[in-house]
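**User:** My hope is that you can spare some time for a protein that puzzles me. I have put the entry right below:
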Amino acid sequence: METDLGGSVALVTGASGGIGYATALELARRGADVAVHYLSNEKGAKEAAGAIAGLGRASGVFRADVSVHGEVRALVEAVIARFSRVDVLVNNAGDLVERRPLLEMSEALWRRVIDVNLSSTFFVTQAVAPGMVERKRGTIVNMSSVAAHHGGGPGAFAYAAAKGGVISLTKGMAKDLAPHGVRVNCVSPGLIGETGFHPRHTSPEVFAAAEKSVPLGRAGTPEEVARVIAFLAGPESAYLTGETIEINGGMLMR
């Protein structure tokens, strides 16, 4: 078992399923205690916490809407009360919310998509970072998407814009926090199967066609993304900050 994160405390948002769930377990395998955040899937969050305990690490389950500033503050306070600090933050929570063409997009839906994917990353980081700055160490990993590079599929332009913003936000955060010993990086997954995302937003036919278009000929898995996140969270990436790593089976090759 890897132990490169031994003694660390991690907070993973959106950890009740998919990439977040896989990431929480991967960090635990590498020695971290993990705070499991969720919004609506309490069962999945508790299952993640149980699996983490089975790996011999401490865990806890915490509910919050990370698009709401006040709830984020309460979330981080609760995590720190339980674990005393956060050494690793993974801003995984996010969602396409709803597909809607440009001319049919309401202001309320636009703001919801931006808040769920971009504002949440800012809110959670701003709440966690002071402790990292005080200790002169910490790692933050944000979650973008291949959609940031091509504008998204039908009706997903707002999601693509938010995820593009996450890439820029990562660079800005990295610049601000580097003098304090805190690193900020980002992952940008492509087509990932075995999550709740595509069943909600993509038909099986469209997903199958997209899978065939991937140069490696398949969708990725949450575990493959989780291993890259764990790399960015750990000491092997100690000279890496402000970067976005693409995990897409070659989808962006020119």
